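Example: EAL domain-containing protein.
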Amino acid sequence: MSLSSFRVEVSAGSVLFRQGDAPTSAFLLEQGEIEVTTRHGEESRRLGVLVAGDLLGEMAVIDDSPRTATATALTDCVLTPIDRTQFAERLDDADPVVRALLLSQLTRYRSALAQLSGQREPAPSAQVRDARAQDAAVALDKIRLESELREALERRELEVRLQPILEISTNRVAGFEALTRWTHPERGPVSPADFIKLAEETSLILPIGDYVLAEVCNALRRIGGDGDAAPFVALNVSGRQLDDPGLLDRFLAALVAGGVAPRRLKIEITESLVLDYERVSGIIARCHGAGMKVALDDFGTGYSNLGHLHKLEFDTLKMDQGFIRQMSDPRCYAIVRAIVGMAHSLDCDIVAEGVETELQLRQLRELGCRYAQGWLIGKPLPVPEALALL
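Written out as structure tokens, the predicted fold is:
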């Protein structure tokens, strides 16, 4: 057997690894055929024949257990070794539900294999048992929370709140950002960072998005008003929603059904999605064609690509709250001033998020920033309380 860090060559009849060996690595079979067998007493039983493109030895590597079978080359073979860290890193980053399902299947396979070979099933180490138990607990909690989120949506228990956005020069509430909140009957308030992320991992974000849109249209109808000065509502849409080709058609249908002018709904696209320039450009064009405005959310959080920004015709830039909180630093103040100036040059409105002090508001007024949002202006409020601000 010829062995290197990147390629293993095994001649016909050679054993790659034996039953009971330690799991040093897995392999990708590039060329040839390998027979996998297990022993039951003196009897050898064939489990299968692997061909080019198959993985072998991966199960023992994943759960750090001794080899449960022997791999023998039927022909001259070429394999690529896969180090255990390559699996471990991917498993650590995987969804806990997927990880728990995989380990559950491995456990069942090992149990069946032990019965087939007449051996006692190998007991995992305490460390492995603890890791599996932790993964299973996280996975079950996540599955349970997703089911409860679906039930909350069905029962219309998700609440849409409106956070006011102040037009600084006139000191009036010019609009709101729609934010979704969920109070679980047992867990209490669930962080949007948790349940929105959970919804985005599945198709659940689509019906939730439609639900929030309907609530926003109802709020806009209650607000009333017409013309350019009529209050607007900004609604954040996720990447998964933007993948849905029927999204904007449903938005327009909901606005028409509610008798709401499209210009009063502002779509917010998070800055991380701007990396997909072609898709975002097309979405902006469709929104503008329908009369809706588009905002770039969380501007300055690390994904900014100024090389494309001038081509993406956003109507509004929402400056990340991290800049506002550090405006006492002269260098950060200079960055805020530059962002405001850039927005003006691009003929964009600009919203400063996270405004919490009168000093920050005064500085933004001096810089010519049009809108401010944050706890100084107002916290996310139930719709009736938000409407009372107008």
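The CA atoms of residues 341 and 367 lie 8 Å apart.
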